Amino acid sequence: MASGLQNPTSTWELVSGQYYRKFTVFTPSWTQDEDFNLDDYLVAGAPFGGALALWKDPRKFHAYQGGQAAKPHIIICNLAGGLLRRITWDRGAIRAIGWSDDEHLLVVTTDGSVRCYYDLQGNFTHFSLGADAEEHGVVSCRFWGTGFVALLSNNVFVAVNRYDEPRPRPLALPKLPSPESKIHSWALIPPNYSDSRHVEVIMATDQTILIVDATESQDQILQNGPFHHISVSPNGSYVALYTGDGKVWVIDVKFQQKLSEYDSGKTDEIPLDVQWCGIDSVVLVWEDEVHMVGPAGAALRWYYDSRVNLVPEMDGIRMITTEKCEFLQRVPDVTRSIFEFGSSSPPAGLLEAVGHLERKSPKADDAIQLIRPSLPEAVAACVQAAGHEFDVDWQKQLLKAASFGKSVLELYNSDDFVEMCKTLRVLNAVRFYEVGFGITGDQLERLTPDKLIERLVARQEHLLALRISDYLSLPTDKIYIHWACMKVKLSVDDEDTICRTIVTKLSGKRGIAFDEIAKSAFEEGRGRLATQLLNYEPRAGRQVPLLMSMEEDEIALDKAIESTDSDLVFYVLLHLKKKLPIATFFRIINDRPLAYSLIETSARNIDTELLKDLYYQDDRKSDGANVILRESLMQENFTTRIDKLKLASKLLKDSKEHALDASALEESIKLLTIQESLERDVFEETFVGLSLNDTIFKLTRLGFHPRANKIRSEFKMPDKRFWWIKLRGLVAKREWAEIEEWSKLKTSPIGWEPFFNECLSAGNTKVASIFIPKCRNLGHAERINMWVQCGMIVKAGEEALLAKDYNSLEGLLPKATGAAVPEIQKMMQKLRPGR
Amino acid sequence: MVAERATEFDPSKIKDQALRDLCNVLEGVRGKKSLVVDKALSGPLGLIAQPSLLQDYGVVQLHWIEDGSIDYAASKNILYIARCTAKNAYSIASQIKNAPRIPGQDFEHSLFFVPRRTPLCDRILEDEGVFGDVTINEYPLYFIPLEPDVLSLELDDAFEDLYLHKTYTSIFNSAKALMLLQQQYGLFPRITGQGDKGKRLLDALLRMRNEAAAEDASTSMALAPSSIIENLVIIDRETDFVTPLLTQLTYEGLIDEIFGINNSHVELEASVVGAAMQGPAEATGRSVGTAPAAPQGKKRKVLLEGSDRVFTDLRDNNFSAVPAILKKTALRIDADFKKKDDYKTVSEMKTYVTKVLGPAQKDRTSLSMHFNIAEIIQKHINTELFEKTLEVQQSLIAGYSSTQQHELMAELIARGASLETVLRLLCLYSCVSTGFKPKDFDLFRREILQGYGYEHVLTLDALDKVALLQSRTVAGSTAAAATRTNYDYLRKPLRLFSESVNESDPDDIVYVYSVYAPLSGGGSLNPNSAGWKGFEDVVKNVGGKTFDEVQKGEDKAVRARMILDGQNEKKVTVVFFLGGITYTEIAALRWIAKQEEGKRQIIIATTGIINGNNIIRAATTAARTKPRQT
């Protein structure tokens, strides 16, 4: 063994075949202050070795300390007792204090008001748990990494799932066995460990346990209550219950199986706290007595001079007293295999070998040869074990052993070794008492280095954060931003100097959000500095919100336009429209086409009055008239419809360029009036809303020819169109006599082919055929085809004969039937008598 | 660090991600829930997930936001999924405000905005006083792969947004979607394109790239030029309105023209879909003698996509080739069925049943449906109206414009052809002839107003604003010349028009429109021409700005990416159609891709699939305003 090192096993204790170690991480600085007694305070600790929050225990009497100091406050300090912040509390009685994984401090008052202190500087956001909480009051709270649940005195549980946008939601009402039943104790299962992926509450009432989630309350039907404490293991798999007769039960979370039982022997005194230590033991605390129940129900006991506060961690538990800050955990397996008394494991051998080497003893080589076959595993174990040690000398010794081992190996991948050296440097740096993190290697891995850096930044340890980031190749932008924000807030220099300092320091760094820095400046009331800084923000979109709150309206609008994000532009516009007089607003959008289009388009759907004003001030008459035209389409009432049209047409009349539109609208009024009177005359038919063509078509189809003619001349419809419409109308009416009448006319403006086609498509070959001879403009071949389409093969033959087209005749022959066959043959004879 | 490194272009990953995200959205609300969806999203969501997924995740009710009628008795959890438009935010706010208040029964409202949560929507919900009553999140749904080579944002209103309202929301969304591609595959090494709105998209994209670089030091590697994607071509619909105005003549294009395809689904009469695909509900009919006739008017939605082998063979062909392909397919399927005699042993038979018989049966069902569809199409294109329409179109693009075309157009109006058909022709005329002569312009405006209703003053105004239908005094002005595509100068050099094409075994891209090559595909990519660069003089006549941007990264990052990705032989070209693409253009690009097979992969990306009718309908929205129901 290396000399001068305390044997690690000195802190070990054995319980049911498992070693546990309890060691002092820090001796807090408050031990120097004789007047300070932690027993006067309630303590809440942030996970991952983070900060502590202390506040005066209201149940205890405190010595009167004069007017000023009597104001209640919350002390935030690190595990070494170093003060981080003293928050003066002015908001009513505190019911509970807790921490989130991001080290945000949550303070809940009895009336359900919640503050979330999101930095360690005393800045906070505030929200309320709702009217229910205000009326009935909060009884207690339980926190998890990203949220918490509060129990109200009317037995309602209220859950908050996130702090950035808190939405307090009540869980299902617990189905208590009787109205008098009390809730003895409760705990929660965080969303990431529950089956439903939403938070669940385990609560003890009467003899039993209920599990409550957002939708239902389920009775687990137990008979051994009342249970005074419930604690869920860090992995969400087990539950520890403290029974009325002083026993601890460990049960799986499904309440199927009891895993162990322990009798504390204390039937008269309920423990102050019951918490898990890692995932295989449970710690019970009475005022100055601590029991730790191991996996098989055996226990260790310790006695203290003052009250013990528990802060559970994923891999152990923190015990904080007036005297010291300790950590209790199960000895990791690799550590045990190396240091356990009499261990002959390969890594133990390797550690021994390096001891020999240091003493320059030749036995070093023998020791190595002895474990040669399992040397790679031994090296790995030593590297791992180093990560579990808090003592720097032992870390070094273990790494030295690993290093010696790997030098003997021919092939070794040093990645793990290098990685561990890096991790240990970071761990040791933050465990330094001035920084005061009591974090273990496993915790760091879970927390991630990025989050550790965030925590350092919150503690104003910018330099350390920066060095660690650089060392681990992590992004540094957030550190710089935070530093700059602090600079803006705290510096007493003049604004130009501050701006210069910040810009010089941050130039060339990537990802610097100048908008955030500018925002801090603005919040500090340094408007000009904010504007200066904002100019350095390359992302136009991000400048917008701040510019808006700085009332730099037009710049905000221009930046939004620059960002190409139309939704953002519209957002600014919505804000401006509310705030500015309409004339100013129009002036602003007038020379910005995108803004103009956005307002135009949205107003078209929701605010036509605004649109009319807009067009009016721009003298856009035709657009203004179109708005009114659209309004007229929306009217059910006939008179208002006409009135709107008149209004629109009046608007257009004055200008020459819109003469056509104006006359179209006047025609439209005329047509509507005619249609309305038609509806009065012709029962059960609708005309209003039809187009001119459709009106005439419909009249024709219904047989009102004089009326159709009248409208036609009133609207000066061209002949061709009228003939087409009339033809279609008559065909639709199957008014064949009328159509035949037409055939007696000499000419038709649309020719005769349409007559043939329309009749044919309507299936009347007889009438269709009447028009074939009239199609003189067509070639004989087409006429032949027309006859064939009417099924008149002989007629087709005559057409061919007339044109002396023998080939066509020949083609007709197969189509002919019955009497037509000889006829066609006769015609063929005529043309080619020889055959 | 960069999350995932891609070594080849794989759009299916985008779909998987979208599905995973959707599951998370649904899982975010515990227990039974009523789902309220923006109607514009129902189609896109249908492409991502089967309806059964919703039931699996506890959805008991499905409503449209537009309907505003939620059955509050069904569940106390109300989950909204909506595009992040102001209109949606207002509707949702009013629905939350009007939710019944039952003491002791609190409704839980959750809201997911697609594709992102915006300050605008937050502000609206705040102003309406419901911000505290609803949990707001986002569902980042951008590109949806319609086919392995087609990515679409499925934005129904992109055309209006870009060219009519000029609000450009879809440019920002497109840029975001393309940024996501860049984040996965690296920067597009070169971006070329055409058109003013296209230039805006490029600017937005470059801005986002710079902002992403400023955002985070660790993304610089991801933002090195891609070694998988070679270039991005941005085509602004505005540079070529002519192509979508023409009637599409490929099989899929004609289905779109006649039936309308929405989000890859087409609605057909049940009798067309055929007995086998109608599911068990129809099988319970009487079985005496003839099969029971399918009930008239009953519609069925059918998904048209690449997994249907029969459809894949047909979709991109000119319709004139379709009968022959159908016949060939019928013979092939018949042969597949007969193959059973070749297999002797049990294991051979097993392979036959799974590998040959199964697919063949599926093909047979599909084939009968496509026979029915083809029959309807055939009937449609044989009508005189269709023939006349096509005649006008083809004369116009060939550059013959005469009084004859005018008369034909007037005749179509008099004969009551649909407004879409007529306006498509008029717009086409205006586009290829630099507007109508003032006299003709007034004449046709009158024809339209008298023929289809005076409310179409609004429609004509909209078409004028989009520069689709204009008088020569406006269209011919120097201001308009910069953004206008001049077809007279382009027709020859870009070989847009050709009358000698083999429609069944095409040797030129013009086969898709029988005589015309889409400018959109032809100019930029057609290997028969030399691409934009060689045609600089010609390109002056294509509307809008031309751009060509090379994106470089830091040398270090470029090398790192090369090492990681290796050197790919096959390069990917992404063609982004801003403002929409037609099925026929997709067919044309696939034809080009086939010529380049092995050397280049063409990925088509777009804001959505459009056709001429959609374009016209965008302009007729205002005129279709109906009286408010009281």
UniProtKB/TrEMBL annotation, chain A:
<dbReference type="GO" id="GO:0003779">
    <property type="term" value="F:actin binding"/>
</dbReference>
<dbReference type="InterPro" id="IPR038132">
    <property type="entry name" value="Vps16_C_sf"/>
</dbReference>
<feature type="domain" description="Vps16 C-terminal">
    <location>
        <begin position="512"/>
        <end position="820"/>
    </location>
</feature>
<dbReference type="GO" id="GO:0016197">
    <property type="term" value="P:endosomal transport"/>
</dbReference>
<dbReference type="InterPro" id="IPR006926">
    <property type="entry name" value="Vps16_N"/>
</dbReference>
<dbReference type="GO" id="GO:0006886">
    <property type="term" value="P:intracellular protein transport"/>
</dbReference>
<keyword id="KW-0653">Protein transport</keyword>
<dbReference type="InterPro" id="IPR036322">
    <property type="entry name" value="WD40_repeat_dom_sf"/>
</dbReference>
<dbReference type="Pfam" id="PF04840">
    <property type="entry name" value="Vps16_C"/>
</dbReference>
<dbReference type="Pfam" id="PF04841">
    <property type="entry name" value="Vps16_N"/>
</dbReference>
<keyword id="KW-0813">Transport</keyword>
<dbReference type="InterPro" id="IPR001680">
    <property type="entry name" value="WD40_rpt"/>
</dbReference>
<dbReference type="GO" id="GO:0030897">
    <property type="term" value="C:HOPS complex"/>
</dbReference>
<comment type="similarity">
    <text>Belongs to the VPS16 family.</text>
</comment>
<dbReference type="GO" id="GO:0005768">
    <property type="term" value="C:endosome"/>
</dbReference>
<dbReference type="InterPro" id="IPR006925">
    <property type="entry name" value="Vps16_C"/>
</dbReference>
<dbReference type="InterPro" id="IPR015943">
    <property type="entry name" value="WD40/YVTN_repeat-like_dom_sf"/>
</dbReference>
<comment type="function">
    <text>Essential for vacuolar protein sorting. Required for vacuole biogenesis, stability and to maintain vacuole morphology.</text>
</comment>
<dbReference type="GO" id="GO:0042144">
    <property type="term" value="P:vacuole fusion, non-autophagic"/>
</dbReference>
<protein>
    <recommendedName>
        <fullName>Probable vacuolar protein sorting-associated protein 16 homolog</fullName>
    </recommendedName>
</protein>
<feature type="domain" description="Vps16 N-terminal">
    <location>
        <begin position="8"/>
        <end position="418"/>
    </location>
</feature>
<dbReference type="InterPro" id="IPR016534">
    <property type="entry name" value="VPS16"/>
</dbReference>
Automatic annotation (TrEMBL), chain B:
<protein>
    <recommendedName>
        <fullName>Sec1-like protein</fullName>
    </recommendedName>
</protein>
<dbReference type="InterPro" id="IPR043154">
    <property type="entry name" value="Sec-1-like_dom1"/>
</dbReference>
<dbReference type="InterPro" id="IPR036045">
    <property type="entry name" value="Sec1-like_sf"/>
</dbReference>
<dbReference type="InterPro" id="IPR043155">
    <property type="entry name" value="VPS33_dom3b"/>
</dbReference>
<dbReference type="GO" id="GO:0016192">
    <property type="term" value="P:vesicle-mediated transport"/>
</dbReference>
<dbReference type="InterPro" id="IPR027482">
    <property type="entry name" value="Sec1-like_dom2"/>
</dbReference>
<dbReference type="InterPro" id="IPR001619">
    <property type="entry name" value="Sec1-like"/>
</dbReference>
<dbReference type="Pfam" id="PF00995">
    <property type="entry name" value="Sec1"/>
</dbReference>
<comment type="similarity">
    <text>Belongs to the STXBP/unc-18/SEC1 family.</text>
</comment>
